[in-house]
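Handout, page 2. Input:
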Amino acid sequence: YRGKVYALNNSGLFGCFDLKTGAEHFYERLRHRGNGFSASPVVADGKIYCAGEDGVVFELAAGEKFKLLAEHPVGEPLIATPALSNGVMYLRGTRHLFAISKSVK
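Output:
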């Protein structure tokens, strides 16, 4: 994404690397609550979303510096990678399918 590769491992280590050179920009741990990550990160509008097995979606700024913007609890475990379509993020929990988008005023 924009010349960077973002990677997340099961234990919550999240890294950003230069696409051309492979140089590491950062490699930090997301402070999850214990169960880790099965889903792959997704990116939209300059933000990276990491869905955790603990039921929290971590929102990070895309770029060379690690910047956690928010943590969004959804109330149930998330195992599948979020899907993005037409401005909507779909999260499949263990009991529900969530559709999240910006509110229109």
